[in-house]
């Protein structure tokens, strides 16, 4: 396996496990949140899906400045269901994975992504790992939400 294969495997495994969690949340609980300052379950799912699109734009343009120049297809679309959001996100997800597949080892090591607006500049390889980590953290939060709601949690360690 080369670097790209490992990155793709990681992205696919993280998403597969996220989807297991997302689909295990009862529809009537998608608007649940632990307190007034937290995301609802649905908002967190949307945040992850939209975040991947936004991160992709940051990677393409090599920095956060990209976010001021692009239309965000998620801004006007309300979250309605896990299945609908996944279907809506599918072409963006495929485009993101194509981008990752097309990277060279040199790109991963030498391309710098400027996120100094939020306190860091990192290599492209580092940023890709951060994107997967972001989704993983939110999946863990949703598992905690489910525990608090008293909802059965899926086994993501298969």
UniProtKB/TrEMBL annotation:
Q: Which part of the chain is the DinB-like domain? A: 11-142
Task: Tell me which stretches of the chain form a coiled coil.
Answer: none
Any matching Pfam family: DinB_2
> Where does the chain cross the membrane?
none
Name the chain's protein. Answer: DinB-like domain-containing protein
Q: Which organism is it from?
A: Brevibacillus formosus
